[in-house]
């Protein structure tokens, strides 16, 4: 909640009929399944409530969390569009992600009530078909943004994604930034309304790219935010594991933070691992959840055979469509990698001839001449393309990337290095940036000013008091709704995460729910931040760091924000 800052009424626009947040009546027992996310909340009860929103927000953060970490209709209270259409999203007061909460909920503590909101996107968030899940996430994200913009054209957006959700965030940002305006305007939203994008573990990252692609100083800071992320021009080696999703952000260049930790093979994969790249492309189309759950069965084997068969047919069709393929330097492995990418679009197929076979044509004779060289190039190319494959396999890539307590996929909450010129973790920096953007949106000003003084104070406090190896920028708040119609509605929150308050000007009704972290499930891709930080047999504890982060703003009073350490995991 904002202290000493008056919310400007000029920034609130009344809606004829606002977003509704209906609940589900009765108890909903949620069973923990293997490979579910221990960091995802479990809703034990919901209440039937509904209230009309009477105002627009100055800024809304669209959050897309990782695998098995998303709200779903029927178990979480979802938003409803002004025309009554259910929206695939829930307020951050209704759904909590241990990973993304510290980033998207931080701005809510620095601006006035009704100025800022964060919503989580509902999408499959699974590996039953990775590509299908991500595509649904993209569609749902764009639907929510489009709906909000239609009712509140002055609302600014931030997009935040982590892990599987990072792929969604990248694709949405690329589509928004590279739109061409039509007669009726932009198909999704005006790119100018998107003020920031945060991608944690960017699988579409290009080789040598800095954390802020397209910015004036891509290694230091996004445009309009003068707080330095790091000193020097450090960049994680390698590239993203999904190069087919890479590309520029168009009008959003300079507004994107693409974070990658060295050793996180989802975004820092070395070159020359062709076989592993082929395996990644294959995995994007397989039911990996079923393979993990059931092992190799008749059903999973059929699934694998179907995908492999489709890739093989596509490879031969691609070769056939290239008249001079035998004379080219492209190897068969190159073709397999190309056609196995779900984004691959086949070229024009070569028409089949029904004429009887006869003497070799001149082109076929030439191909025979090139056959020995082609075979030699296949062998040489295979060796060169897999120069680093053995090294990666021997390094135990799963443990290196996703291992509990050591996996680099979780570094973004513990990667501060004050002595090395990096005072904040990646998640803390993202939270400070979004807070700056929210303040600018509240004032009705473009996000092109110097960093807030609060960000500088945050750096000093974090560098001197927080343990960068395992401390996430978290605050504990209680979600409330003080609108008269909802005065009796009660809610409780997980103390280790940040829940932004439900604004009094726009009460999207919270449910009477008790939210607790699920600790009964096996380890999955995204365990809780504390589980990734360290392995311990002690029960969860809430430890206060005896410091406060002083957040100040030029015309306003100081806002105290307490930084707390995450709890230890339950084994």
Write the layout of secondary structure elements.
Blueprint: E1 26-27, E2 41-43, E3 45-46, E4 59-64, E5 89-91, H1 101-104, E6 116-121, H2 130-151, E7 156-162, H3 164-177, E8 194-200, E9 256-259, H4 274-283, H5 288-294, H6 298-320, H7 332-340, H8 362-385, H9 389-394, H10 397-402, H11 426-443, H12 453-465, E10 515-517, H13 529-533, E11 543-551, E12 559-565
Parallel strand pairs: 4-6, 4-7, 7-8, 8-9
Antiparallel strand pairs: 1-3, 2-10, 5-6, 11-12
Protein name: Cutinase
Family: Belongs to the cutinase family.
Organism: Rhodococcus oxybenzonivorans
Kindly describe this structure:
It is a single chain. The chain is an alpha/beta fold and 571 residues long. The protein folds into two domains: 9-271 and 402-565, 3-Layer(aba) Sandwich (Rossmann fold), CATH 3.40.50; 274-349 and 359-387, no CATH class. The chain is 28% helix and 10% strand. It contains 13 helices and twelve strands. It has helices at residues 101-104, 130-151, 164-177, 274-283, 288-294, 298-320, 332-340, 362-385, 389-394, 397-402, 426-443, 453-465, 529-533, and strands spanning 26-27, 41-43, 45-46, 59-64, 89-91, 116-121, 156-162, 194-200, 256-259, 515-517, 543-551, 559-565. The strands form four sheets. The chain has a six-stranded mixed sheet with strand order 5-6-4-7-8-9, with helices on both faces. The chain has a two-stranded antiparallel sheet with strand order 1-3. Helix 2 packs across helix 3 (164-177) and helix 6 crosses helix 7. Mean pLDDT is 68; it is low at 1-54, 348-358, 363-371, 385-395, 447-528 and 530-571.
